[in-house]
TrEMBL record:
Protein name: Protein krueppel
GO biological process: embryonic morphogenesis; negative regulation of cell differentiation; segmentation
Organism of derivation: Meganyctiphanes norvegica
Keywords per UniProt: Developmental protein, DNA-binding, Gap protein, Metal-binding, Nucleus, Repeat, Transcription, Transcription regulation, Zinc, Zinc-finger
Similarity annotation: Belongs to the krueppel C2H2-type zinc-finger protein family.
Amino acid sequence: MPFSCTECDWGNCDIDRLILSLLGVNQLAFEFKSLRYLNMQNCNYEEQKNILKDGVFPDERSQCEEVFSESELFKVKQEMHTEYRPYEFSKCDEAFLNSSQSESPMLEKPYLCSHCGKAFSHDILLKSHEHTHTGGESHQCFECNKTFVYNNQLITHMRTHTGEKPYQCSQCGKAFSIKSNLTSHKKIHTGERSFQCTQCDKTFSSNGYLKIHMRLHTGEKPFKCSQCDKAFSQNGHLISHMTIHTGEKPYQCSLCDKKFSLNTHLVRHMKIHAGEKPHHCIHCKKAFLFNSELILHMKSHTGERPYQCQECNKTFLCDSRLKRHMRIHTGESPYECKQCDKAFIRNSELTRHMSIHTGKKPYQCSQCAKDFLSNGELKSHMIVHSGEKPYQCSQCDKSFARSSHLIRHMRLHTGEKTYPCSQCDKSFLTNGNLKKHLKIHTDKKEYSI
C-alpha cells in the first residue's frame, strides 16, 4: 500500500527514489516489494532513470541486500521534513504517492549519532548524517576541485562547467540544467501560481519560492557566513558573498580567459562576446543584455529614484546602489586586498587598487588600445569615439552622454538640492559645489585659530 507525504507536495519521485538520490547511486542496493512507481519519467534525478524498473536497484558492487517495507520508507521520508534539514526537497510540486493515509505516524528514533547524539528513525538517515562529521566528500570535480558527498550532486554541479542544459521547454525552447527548474518555468506559460502567501496574498508557482518569500516577513536568515557575521535568506546569496572572502573564481571565459566567481556572471559575460543585446530602450538607441538593465536605464529618462538613504536623504535608482552607498555610513569595507591590509567599499575600487601591485590596467579600448582600471572608465571613454548622447532632457533640447549628467541637469529645472551642508543650512545641486562651500567653514576655523 503506497503512502503520501503530508508535509509537502514533493512529487515526481517516489519515497525509495528520493532516498536513493540522497544516498548516491552506487552506495546501497535496495529491494522493494509491491511498490507502484508513479511518474518515473518526471523524476528530477534523470541519471537514475534506468533503476527500479523491476523493483530492484542493481549495483554490481553492492554488498547490501537489506529489504525495507513501505511503512519504513514512509517514516524516512517524514523524518526528512522534521529532522534532516540540510537537503531541500521543495522544488517540485506534484503529488508524492496516492494514499488514504492522511497523517504521518509518530517516529521512533533508535539510531543515535556517536558524534553529536542526534537521533534518527532509520540507519539510512544516520549514515547520511554522519557525513557531516566525517567530511566524507569523496566525489570531486576535476574542473574546480570542489567535493561533494554524493555522486548525483557532482553530476548536477558538472553542468555549471559544461553548460549542459538537458531539460528544454516545449513552449519556448528555453533549456535548464535541473529538471525542477523546468517544472517551475512551465508554470510561466500556464499561469499557474497555486502557492499563496498568508501575509500579503502574493502567489508563487512553487512551494520553494513561497518558502523563500516568507523569510521577508519572518526576517529569517538561516544561511550564515562562517567568516563574518553576515546572514542571508537564500543559500545562493551566501555563495555569492563567500567569494568576497575566498577570492575564488572557478568559471573562466574560453574566449578572453577572464574569470568569474559565479557561473551566472560568466553566462552574462559571454553575451558581450556574442554581441547580443535584445532589450532596446524606446526613448533612445541604447540596447541592453538583460531586461533588468533596461528597466534600470528607463528610470534615467523618467528621473525616478525611489530608494532613499535614511541617513543623508540621497536617492538611488535601485536597491543595490543604496546598499552600496550605506557602506559609507556603516564603514563596512568587504573587499580586502590580499597583498596589503587595505579594504574597499566596492569591488571596482579593489580592482583599481590592485593595479598598484600588478601594474596592469585590465580594461582596453578596442578603438585606440588605451587601457583603463575599471569597466566604468572604459565605458565613459568609449563615448569619445561614438559621440553618442542618448540621454535627452524632457524639459529642454539638451542631451547628455551619461545618465548621471542628465540627472544633475534635471535639478536645474526642478530646483532640487540634494547635497546639504552639515555645518549650516545651505544645500547644493552637486557634490562638487558642496565641497567648494565646505572650504568656507574650514578656512574660518583656521582663521579663528
